[in-house]
Design goal:
The protein is elongated and about 80 Å long. The N terminus is likely disordered. By secondary structure, the chain is α+β, with helices and mostly antiparallel strands. Helix 8 runs antiparallel to helix 9 and helix 9 packs antiparallel against helix 12. It is built from twelve helices and ten strands. Strand 9 and strand 10 form a beta hairpin. The structure holds flavin-adenine dinucleotide (FAD). The site of flavin-adenine dinucleotide has 21 residues, from strand 1, strand 3 and helix 12.
Length: about 375
């Protein structure tokens, strides 16, 4: 198998290895030192944003035509993975910039792309994705946010819930009902700007993990926007939202993978230092077997995630299955591996003095957002390869 064309698709090329090395050293030098404080103080990781923007890593997926780095899906995955390895909250900067802007890239007009992707690529603006509502989570098509046409404008009213980086981002892709009689085919997508009159934000949610990533409600109160802010044709917003998730669930898999790798790396070092019964605990086979299982699961998740990224880049027919499978598998692995890392540190692992406790809390969200893992299984079952 090794050396066959198919196998090579899943293997990062040399340029991807170089990218990994440079993101890792940036993340360890400029993001890791603040990760514990960002979590403890539940504050936005401004140091991470500054470091990512100065190295052009904050939105690597933006095509070169619009001033971006033009990174492929695998390169984007590697950036997110390496940032998440040291700080999951910070990894939501490149991940959500892709999630928020991908609807514009996939379905937007040239004018929308030119207007909104340039500032994103430059680091002048971040992009969020507003699909979920208080009463429409897994059943996102049950949303109530309404957009009504008024001449050359649309007027939006409603509440979006759980919006990552809300309040920090300048731009929001907002899904809203334009024809209530059509359910998902009556939903359209729009770009809403933070500065549009009638846009406001709720208080940050008090979360279990990813505490450095602000999650807020977005209130739309008679927000009047020009008609050309619609992304794609009327009624195609839900399809665009789902197409987006096919690609971006792979970035959540990358985040999960990075968190798991960070926990394994920390535990590997710890078991060599910690002595019980007169020797390092890493000398005990019971501990070695746990580390072996953790590494095996991470590698399996990595292969599935990279393979899904290759499919995202080519927009293969089985992308929907692979995107859901990668997200579901990698996030379950992240939860298992981080829980095992806490176990390997014993009582110390259970405290905030060591990073594995934070990693275990951060891992949990990867099983929930961009569709819970039950929803991923529904998606997979409907799109079996
Ligand atoms: C920190 C955070 C950040 C987020 N960021 C964003 C964002 O940026 N943009 C955005 O739009 N959304 C975002 N979300 C929303 C997220 O995608 C939803 O929370 C998620 O889709 C689940 O919806 P819900 O919370 O309403 O749960 P519910 O849909 O109420 O689900 C509750 C439980 O029921 C299960 N369930 C529901 N339906 C089924 C079914 N048919 N079969 C089996 N089980 C089922 C679920 O799996 C879950 O276990 C975020 C959420 C969080 C917590």
């Amino acid at each position: 198998m090794a050396g066959s064309a198919d196998f090579d698709l899943y293997r990062p090329a040399e340029e991807h290895d170089m990218l990994r090395e440079s993101v890792r050293s940036l993340a360890e030098a400029k993001i890791l030192p603040f990760a514990a404080a960002v979590d403890e103080e539940s504050r936005f990781p401004q140091e991470a944003l500054d470091a990512l923007v100065s190295s052009d890593l904050h939105a690597v997926h933006v095509p070169e035509t619009y001033g971006g780095a033009g990174a492929d899906a695998l390169a984007t995955v590697i950036v997110i993975e390496e940032v998440a390895r040291v700080c999951a909250s910070s990894s939501l900067i490149p991940a959500v910039n892709k999630l928020g802007s991908l609807p514009v890239i996939l379905s937007g007009s040239e004018e929308l792309k030119a207007k909104y992707l340039g500032p994103l690529a430059k680091g002048d603006a971040m992009f969020s994705y507003a699909l979920s509502e208080p009463d429409a989570g897994s059943d996102a098509a049950g949303m109530k946010t309404r957009a009504v046409r008024d001449g050359d404008f649309w007027v939006l009213n409603g509440v979006k819930r759980w919006i990552t980086n809300a309040g920090v981002s300048e731009y929001y892709t907002v899904m809203a009902v334009t024809d209530p009689s059509m359910r998902s085919k009556g939903i359209s997508a729009f770009v809403v700007e933070k500065s549009d009159e009638g846009v406001s934000f709720g208080a940050p949610e008090k979360k279990l993990g990813i505490k450095g990533s602000p999650t807020r409600e977005v209130y739309l109160d008679n927000v009047r926007i020009p008609a050309d802010r619609m992304i794609g044709a009327e009624g195609t917003g839900f399809a665009t939202a789902m197409k987006t998730l096919d690609h971006t669930r792979i970035t959540i898999a990358a985040q999960a993978l990075g968190i798991a790798q960070g926990a394994l790396d920390y535990a590997k070092g710890y078991v060599q230092e910690r002595k019980q019964f007169g020797k390092p605990i890493g000398d005990f086979q019971g501990v070695q077997f746990m580390l072996a299982d953790m590494a095996m699961k991470i590698e399996a998740a990595r292969q599935l995630t990279y393979s899904a990224a290759a499919k995202s880049e080519r927009v293969d027919g089985d992308l929907t299955f692979f995107g859901a499978a990668a997200k579901c598998f990698a996030s379950d692995v992240a939860m298992e591996v981080t829980t095992d890392a806490v176990q390997l540190l014993g009582g110390y692992g259970y405290t905030r003095d060591y990073p594995v406790e934070r990693m275990m809390r951060d891992a949990k969200i990867t099983q929930i957002y961009e569709g819970t893992n039950q929803v991923q299984r529904i998606v997979m079952a409907r799109n079996l390869p």
